[in-house]
Design brief:
Elements lengths: L1 E2 L18 E3 L5 E4 L25 E5 L5 E12 L5 E7 L9 E7 L6 E8 L5 E7 L5 E8 L5 E2 L15 E7 L9 E8 L6 E7 L11 E7 L4 E10 L7 E10 L10 H32 L23
Parallel strand pairs: 1-3, 2-4, 8-11
Antiparallel strand pairs: 3-10, 4-9, 5-8, 5-10, 6-7, 6-9, 12-15, 13-14, 13-16, 16-17
């Protein structure tokens, strides 16, 4: 693994500067951090990405595929100050000339899960720019690799959380096997409480087949939560071969020991959902900053300063 050095509290990774962007090689992971990175405003244009991204502490990579085809940007090992994680923009164009940019992908993760972003139809010999930023000012360490294989969960936008909690601790998920998905061997159920860093695998549901080999179209699974909270469930279809996992369904479930609230008008429900979301984020942010602030700014190297693989030499500097 290549390691971008960030061994002092005030250090920046060199590819904070687009002119010093890190050239990625397929299947070779790198480790980096968004801490103390800055934005070169002449090199970005938020109008190109709309509401998908707000730049705060970005850095730059470049990847040129040797062969045309589908590739995956796999992001893993996130350690962040908040839950939000990093955000990724993939584009073509001349570096630091936004008028030439063409956005291929824009992803805001909203969590610290290991995820992948699929890039279809990349052309051999064509340079592609990757911009990684801390989502909503989050400071993160992370690993990144461009690969022909997907690793982790598919990176998708999250559904809005429910406004009214349920007094019941039991939730039953129902989903169908889409016709658009090819060979599926099983479904994996992932769950993450809103204040948690990562989702965890809760169950594996095998695809049921008839004596003729036809897959059953509908499935269900029941879970019982042990504590009040807001839980995001994701149903992921997995194949027996190396095909990328596919998100089949997302569903929020909110449990409270208080009685379920009466149905409200849509406007009231939306307003209440936004207020609850802000309250949960403030509470979760305080908890995380207390638990992991020391981790975010401390070493990625071991005490001897050695890592496995190659080390990028970098002279410490207050700027990039």
């Amino acid at each position: 693994m290549w390691l971008l050095p960030f061994t002092t509290a005030n250090a920046q990774v060199p590819n904070d500067d687009i002119a010093r962007r890190l050239v990625l090689q397929a299947e070779q992971p790198v480790a980096s951090t968004t801490t103390n990175c800055t934005v070169q405003w002449s090199c970005v244009d938020e109008r190109l990405t709309g509401k998908c991204i707000e730049y705060h502490n970005d850095q730059w990579f470049e990847f040129t595929p040797a062969a045309s085809g589908q590739y995956f940007v796999n992001i893993s090992g996130q350690q962040c100050r908040d839950t939000r994680g990093v955000q990724l923009v993939v584009l073509t164009g001349t570096p630091c000339q936004p008028a030439t940019y063409r956005i291929l992908s824009c992803t805001s993760l909203g969590s610290q899960d290991d995820v992948f972003v699929a890039l279809d139809g990349l052309q051999a010999g064509q340079p592609y720019l990757l911009n990684v930023d801390g989502y909503l000012r989050d400071y993160c360490r992370f690993n990144l690799v461009v690969s022909t294989s997907a690793r982790g969960l598919p990176a998708v936008a999250l559904l809005p959380a429910p406004a009214a909690p349920s007094a019941s601790r039991v939730v039953t998920l129902h989903w169908s096997l889409p016709d658009s998905i090819g060979s599926v061997a099983r479904f994996r159920v992932w769950r993450r409480e809103a204040a948690e860093f990562r989702a965890s695998s809760q169950a594996v549901v095998a695809v049921a087949r008839s004596t003729y080999g036809t897959a059953a179209p509908r499935y269900s699974w029941t879970d019982t939560v042990t504590a009040p909270g807001r839980y995001l469930y994701q149903i992921i279809a997995e194949s027996a071969d190396e095909e990328a996992p596919v998100l089949v369904q997302q569903q929020w479930f909110s449990h409270s020991k208080l009685n379920a609230q009466p149905t409200r008008a849509p406007a009231q429900t939306s307003q209440q959902a936004q207020q609850q979301q802000k309250q949960w984020e403030r509470r979760a942010g305080r908890m995380r900053r207390h638990r992991v602030s020391s981790q975010v700014h401390k070493t990625t190297l071991d005490q001897s300063g050695r890592v496995s693989g190659r080390l990028i030499d970098f002279q410490r500097s207050s700027t990039c």
